[in-house]
Amino acid sequence: MSVDTRFDPMTEAVPSGVTIVVCSSCRDASGSDARPRAGEHLADSACAAAGGSDIAVRRIECLGNCKRRLSAALLRDGCWSYVFGDLAADSGGDLVAGARLFSTSTDGLLPWRGRPDSLKRGLVARLPPLALIKD
Ligand code: FES
After folding, report:
1. CATH code at position 121
2. Among 18, 19, 83, 112, which is disulfide-ready with 99 (CB 3.0 to 4.6 Å)?
3. What's the gap in Å between 48 CA and the centre of ligand 1?
């Protein structure tokens, strides 16, 4: 049996393993093409909220959820993945709160209790981890 010596749970914070993926190309309610787009502001907001933590924030152009406006996803290896829409440009704190909550999950699901309202109302889809649906 091998032991991972890169991480000492007695002296270090437990890595969250959660990545926030923000669509940086989402437009605001006006539909304007002006840059920076509202999605960029949301990504900036998430980066600021996650600053100094081990929660990763990544930007991507289009999560295929354009009709639900500002969109983001929470990913955690081996866990369910969650896509959200109808977010606001300043919802970064909610995404980070959701990521922190997700990091505490022991069943691979993002807990409902304690989830920010924007991540309840804005839920678009959840996708199972591949291992759960393999034959
Ligand atoms: S442009 Fe943001 S989801 Fe498509």
Report:
1. 3.40.30
2. 18
3. 21
